[in-house]
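Instructor's aside before we start: the two examples that follow are unrelated to each other. I chose them only because their records fit on one page, so don't look for a connection. First example below.
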Amino acid sequence: MRMSVRSLCLLLMVLFLSSAFVGCSSGPTRYLASDVCMIKTGQTSRLEVLELMGEPDSKRMVAESTEQWVYYEEDRSALQATPMVGGAFDPNGYHMVVITLADDIVATCKYSAYNEDEFDWQDDYSWQEIKKK
């Protein structure tokens, strides 16, 4: 009897771990920071941007022949990758690329990133608080 309980526990553990790893798979990953380096302002065409970066996450018309594309990617935390409960956690930050196309040629290309710990230094300056009398 003792062996069967142990076998059952082992089987349940294997099933739990295998189901957890199935939830960790995701679609193709973009690397915005490195992909954006291949775009040359004034040279790269609309089609080349699509080949390098894929479809943008959003598009908007800025002027008659000028369009702005935005690529956005969250810096997912390990807790976000947890099956079933990952949606309850916030990302660690994000990466964003904004590309402006004028007459189907890249006019501007800007990369920005934000990390949730970026402004933690402000907590170290509590000594600057003004005490009220």
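Example two begins here.
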Amino acid sequence: MPLILALDTATTGCSVAAVDGASVIASESARMARGQSEALAPMIERILQSCPRQPAAIAVTRGPGAFTGLRIGLAAARGLALAFGIPCLGISTFDVLAWQVRRGGQVSGLPILVGIDSKRADLYAQAFNDQGRPLTPGEALMPEYLPRLLPDGARRLAIAGDAQEAAMKVLVAARPDIELIRVAGAEIPDAVGLAELAQPLLSRAAEHPPSPLYLRPPDVTMPKSS
């Protein structure tokens, strides 16, 4: 199996892992609201020192998430891929978190709602079925609109992402008929899960470019013309 170097700085963490098939060669992660630019390079260096050979591909979360964090991770991933002369795959933060829910074994057979903190009044959200396939497109929306993402007929729902608390607060009030399960270990992306998710996509790397996934424009105020 190909060795994949995966890295994530999309939300409130920094994570790097080297995964060879079913074997995790090395991994390192830390929670942080900021500072990924200082933490990422040393993490990568330590993980690469543990690798028995050069990675065959780089995988990186492409968003949604924090604008600065996304740029840090994507720039590092692209630079490494260029230096090594290997493919670079970008995978959505939603997909990684939904995969972590399913791979963790805490819940099975349940639809999944991923909610990601946007650092504003809205949040990023996407719903998946019990097989991890998207039921809705990823979007930025106000929390009160979350109930419309829920699959018809659902009686139990797994909640992932670092906006779990905000999502559950709204859904408990709007849909008391649904049992909500907050999944531990699926609050922020993990580079091990990212690498696992990337493995079957390597043959179609060109279909998963490391381009940023932004669901709304950045918080920038243009200067007034004089």
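The mean pLDDT is 93.
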